[in-house]
Amino acid sequence: MRLPRLPRAARLPRVPRLPLGSPFQLLLLAASFALAVYAGVRLLSGDWFGVALWIVGAALLHDLVLVPLYSVLDRVLVGGLDTAGGRAWVSYVRVPAALSGLLLLVWFPLISDRVAERYRMATGQSSDVYLGRWLLITALLFGGSAVVLVLRLRLRTRLRRAAKRRSPAAH
To answer: Rounded to two decimals, what is the model's pTM?
Structure first.
């Protein structure tokens, strides 16, 4: 015998399930937290105040200087490509610019040659190659993005031509 359904107002509200994921995902998450805690303990064991000051300073620099700078540059890029009729090309400039900017941010002391003597003392090698390599990687990123854009535009025109050649009944 089937019980009648209660009206919607009389039913208990559904309790939302937590999206926990699979046991493997939970294990990976726990392992990553354990690794982060271990790294934090090791990092803060020496000069905890200097490390904390550096992290807070980096966060403030990012939030107060770099994010507005990213936003302005992105607006200029979108506005410039929009007036040129290439709004769809934004990602082909955004991605290599972001990757190149990230590399510049990470390797800036070596690219700008600010720590050349300290680097030479620590490794016995010259830091002169970093600027050239960063420029080469940046050129490769933008060149690869341009190649992908050209291939995509060619494919799109071929598909349009093929669609025009087909008979109207095939559409």
So the answer is: 0.64
E runs forming strands in 21-170: none
Residue with tokens 């494919």: 155
Q: What is the pLDDT of residues 93-109, one digit of tens each?
A: 999 999 999 999 899 99
2's tokens: 């089937």
Name residue 17's amino acid: R
Q: How far apart are CA 166 and CA 171, in angstroms?
A: 8
Dist CA 21 CA 3 (whole Å): 34
User: CB under 8 Å to 27, separation ≥6 — which residues?
Assistant: none
The values of phi and psi at residue 113, to 5°, are 65, 30
Residue 144's pLDDT is what? 97
Q: Show the CA angle centred on residue 122, arms to residues 49 and 111, nearest 5°.
A: 85
Tell me how far apart the alpha carbons of residues 95 and 116 are, in angstroms, rounded to a whole number.
30
Which H/E stretch holds residue 145?
helix 129-165
